[in-house]
TrEMBL record:
Signal peptide per UniProt: 1-19
Protein name per Swiss-Prot or TrEMBL: Spiggin1.2
GO cellular component, one term: extracellular matrix
Gene: spig1
A Pfam family per the record: C8
Domain VWFD: 32-202, 362-532, 805-903
Originating organism: Gasterosteus aculeatus (Three-spined stickleback)
Organism superkingdom: Eukaryota
């Protein structure tokens, strides 16, 4: 397929999201326009223009489509101008009066975006566009009112229309139109037209005979009717002459008409220059390439060639694009200005940021259910499970959620043959507590503060674990980029699109099936994603807002890390916190403060200001950047290896300088320090595990067998000495076997057999595979991310093909970018989905989308899709129709530009 064919295919695949795609017929665009200008000239949709002089209110046009009412009502003042215009679109009333725009009785500023309509500057005009129908109302404000207004419909409606504009395809009779359109009002009058000789009219129409021919006398009559009594009002007679001149469109007339009629060109503010035919949307710093091709031309005020409007400042100044300023997190940066953090520096370059590579470690963050992968993809875990957080060739990190509450209760780390467990504010090495630090063949593990434990390993991976008030995990990837790392943290190859690679090797589309593929054993229920407690929700919205305050304590980090993700997480955390809301809030705020510290921004004493102070036990003191070097009694026995470590600053309690922590967790002078002892032994005795009575004795868990085995399984009793028996399942083939599990009595598949996804015992060759929550038989194929994958021995074996990126939009504002990031916003504007005219390049296509709301609900029912090709043709997909608009100079004969034959 050519690029353009591909684009159209793309467009229509979008269409298929909201309906069955039938055979499309391409239609040329048809425009129906009705105008009113001067002191009462009406040019209806069809038929001859006429004049009406009245201060009565009139329906200009009115019709119903899909049970929605559309109407435009006008009233002229004694100055001849329109002094009141009321536009109703589906029960939303817009009133134009005294130069103001009132929507539902509220004054609005431009651009204004509403579900049903948009109002924006359109050249020197103002335009209201309906998003329900291809229907626009455009007007020109002058001192004292509106001197020109027109209504445009870009489709023929199968409906009855009334008003001064008449019907779309039937010419009405003037007197009938006026009689039927007048609205009830006792005080107003309709005056009979007065025909008085006028020398400007006479002179003008003497020159237009050739061009207007038979119509000349008709327009000459309108001229006299229009100008009578307003001989000195340019606002009244200039739009009339301009309209006739543009109908003639002869260069001779264009040259003389303004001089002859003494109609001056409109004045433009600031540096802007009037253009008779220029871009309706002028290029500005924030939007230097508005609508790349189909740039509608109209009367406008624009910048001189090569310059753009500096809309970041007042005064309508035009500057070269290269001098535009940039914005980040709500702050403006001048051209050439740099914003930098510890990990990256970005320079503002003509309105665009140019950023360096990230030179910090790629870090995976797991804060409860909130995960950021090494490559920066952010998602939320679906269930409270045991998960593989990350695993490499010779290490694995496993997290375990609490059964009842929403936090991680335990982290297990296996480094080669060494096993570390982090839980209950304790670090255990092979079952023994590490009170302070531990050095072994593969790892150095030590407490940095009362809250944080640091782990350095010899095998490339380093991490920090926050032990209280909840366990959070911060894992730094090895220096070299690697595809060999797997798990919830994804791989580490600077590409977010493959971060949802499951344990069986296929890339999933969403977080749930991906995360579940890395779960081990049983889960303890869902993690809620919405607020069910209104009180918590209100509290959360009020308190989490401190993150966004532009002058608040967190503001200094705004230029480095946007708050949106942390703000949302803060709210979700509080909503679902079964315990203290304040603790949820403090954890949420600490998460942002920690991320800021990671890029070198120290927030300051945010805990005091937000009421999140931490109380330290005994005589320890709190610090936002705790140091560990020589701060414990144990460190005095020799050289403290922690003194040489270049770790991130962490917060927490510790001993002030000059004092040392003893075994009683008290800071004391070194004279009072005691010596090391190792302790911490798990208590033996009877316990109940998963409803089974067990007995912990001599480090061995003995459980009573309780078997009722089916599907070819056999009963295994731990008391019979099979301590290492593990259920072999097709699902587990790729999962780690490293964690030391206690024996559990129960039903197991016989040796050399595996439990498949249906619970049957099968041979390895018959093992099933899982994708998107569905089980597949051995040999079956699926396609995901351009890979064709075959199920073999419980694993997906994939053949990769070059992958075209896919960008999607569906439903109520769900978007997926080419690099697979999902996001959601209920924007009400027309958005550019994709275009190839970026920076200074002139592109070949653009695709814009706009949600079309349902009649009653504020939901998206369908979507308008506008495809521009090379500035030659615009295809609009709307209401299951493709409407084609040919641009000037293109005849539509060039078949190579696009094709819809494959439909
Ligand atoms: Ca990746």
């Amino acid at each position: 397929m050519t690029t353009q064919q591909w684009i159209l295919a793309f467009c229509l695949s979008l269409a298929s999201v909201f309906g069955t795609v039938e055979l499309f017929k391409t239609k040329e665009i048809l425009t129906y326009t009705c105008r009113t200008f001067g002191s009462g000239i009406v040019q209806p949709f069809k038929g001859e223009s006429y004049y009406v002089r009245s201060d009565c209110p009139f329906k200009l046009t009115s019709f119903n489509v899909n049970r929605g009412e559309y109407s435009v009502t006008i009233r002229r003042g004694h100055n001849g101008l329109l002094v009141q215009v009321e536009i109703i679109i589906n029960k939303v009333t817009t009133l134009l009066q005294n130069g103001n725009i009132l929507v539902q009785n509220k004054s609005v500023s431009l651009p204004y975006d509403h579900t049903y309509q948009h109002i924006f500057k359109y050249g020197i005009y103002t335009r209201l566009r309906s998003s329900l129908l291809p229907f626009t109302v455009t007007w020109h404000n002058v001192h004292g009112g509106i001197n020109s207004l027109w209504v445009t419909l870009e489709s023929e409606l199968c409906t009855d229309m009334c008003g001064l504009c008449g019907k779309q395809n039937v010419a009405g009779h003037r007197d009938e139109l006026i009689r039927d359109s007048k609205l009830h009002d006792h005080r107003c009058k309709i005056k009979d037209p007065v025909l008085r000789k006028n020398h400007i009219c006479r002179q003008f129409f003497r020159k237009t005979k050739n061009c207007l021919q038979d119509n000349n006398s008709h327009y000459h009559r309108l001229c006299k009717e229009n100008i009578c009594g307003f001989e000195n009002s340019q606002s009244i007679f200039c739009p009339f002459f301009q309209e006739i001149a543009s109908q003639c469109n002869q260069s001779r007339i264009n040259r003389f008409w303004r001089r002859l009629t003494r109609c001056a060109k409109p004045r433009c503010p600031g540096d802007l220059i009037y253009e008779k035919k220029g871009p309706a949307f002028i290029p500005s710093c924030s939007n230097p390439n508005p609508a790349p091709f189909y740039q509608e031309l109209t009367e406008t005020c624009s910048c001189p060639e090569g310059k753009v409007l500096n809309n970041c400042e007042k005064g309508y100044r035009c500057i070269p694009k290269s001098s535009c300023s940039c914005e980040f997190a709500g702050k403006t940066y001048g051209n050439g200005e740099i914003r930098s953090s510890r990990c990256q520096s970005c320079t503002c370059h003509g309105g665009k940021w140019r950023c360096s590579e990230n030179f910090c470690h790629r870090r995976c963050v797991i804060e409860g259910q909130f995960v950021t992968t090494f490559d920066g993809k952010q998602y939320v875990l679906p269930n409270k499970c045991l998960y593989v957080a990350s695993k490499g060739p010779n290490w694995i990190i496993i997290i375990e959620f609490s059964q009842k509450k929403l936090y991680i209760r335990k982290v297990t780390v296996q480094l080669m043959e060494e096993l570390f467990v982090f839980k209950n504010n304790k670090v255990l090495f092979d079952g023994q507590e590490i009170p302070e630090f531990h050095f072994s063949g593969h790892a150095q593990v030590y407490w940095v503060s009362s809250m944080f434990v640091q782990v350095h390993t010899t095998i490339g991976i380093n991490f920090q674990i926050q032990m209280s008030p909840e366990i959070h995990l911060f894992i730094d990837a090895p220096d070299t980029s690697s595809d060999k790392i797997k798990g919830l943290c994804g791989n580490s190859n600077s590409d977010t699109t493959d971060d949802f690679t499951t344990n069986s090797g296929i890339i999933e589309n969403s977080a749930k099936p991906f995360a579940m593929s890395w779960s081990l054993l049983n889960c303890f229920g869902n993690i809620p994603t919405t607020c069910t407690n209104l009180e918590n929700e209100n509290y959360a919205h009020e308190k989490c807002a401190v993150l966004n305050q532009p002058t608040g304590i967190f503001a200094k980090c705004h230029p480095h890390i946007p708050t949106d993700y942390y703000y949302t997480a803060c709210i979700q955390r509080i909503c679902n916190s079964a315990g203290s809301r304040r603790q949820g809030l403090c954890i949420g705020l600490a998460s942002y403060a920690k991320a800021c510290a990671g890029v070198g921004v120290v927030i300051g004493d945010w805990r005091r200001i937000t009421g999140c102070d931490l109380k330290c036990q005994k005589n320890q003191e709190f610090s936002y950047s705790m140091h560990t070097c020589n701060r414990t009694c144990n460190s005095l026995t020799g050289h403290d290896i922690r003194c040489g470590m270049n770790d991130d600053a962490v917060e927490g309690c510790g001993c002030p300088e000059g004092t040392h922590l003893n075994q009683g967790q008290t800071c004391c002078p070194k004279e009072e320090c005691g010596c090391i002892y190792y302790g911490g032994i798990a208590a033996p005795g009877p316990v109940v595990i998963a409803g089974q009575k067990c007995d912990c004795k001599n480090g061995i868990l003995n459980c009573l067998p309780n078997c009722d085995c089916r599907n070819g399984k056999v009963c295994v009793s731990c008391s019979e000495g099979q301590h290492k028996r593990v259920q072999k399942t097709c699902d587990y083939i790729s999962k780690p076997k490293g964690t030391r599990e206690n024996c559990k009595s129960g039903c197991y598949c016989p040796d050399h057999q595996y439990e498949d996804h249906h619970g049957n015992c099968v041979s390895l060759d018959d093992c099933t595979c899982v994708f998107s929550g569905k089980a597949f038989k051995a040999g079956q194929q699926v396609t995901s991310n351009c890979k064709t994958c075959t199920c073999y021995r419980g694993q997906w074996h994939c053949i990769e093909k070059p992958c075209p990126g896919q960008c999607q939009v569906y439903g109520n504002g769900h978007y997926q970018t080419f690099d697979s990031k999902w996001f959601r916003f209920s924007g009400q504007c027309l958005y550019t989905l994709v275009q190839d005219s970026c920076d200074m390049r002139r592109g070949t296509f653009s695709i814009r989308v706009e949600s079309v709301p349902c009649c009653e609900e504020v939901l998206t029912c369908s979507r308008n899709i506008i495809l521009d090709l090379k500035g030659q043709v615009t295809l609009t997909l709307r209401d299951m129709q493709v409407i084609r608009r040919l641009h000037e100079g293109w005849t539509g004969q060039d078949d190579s530009l696009y094709s819809n034959s494959f439909l």
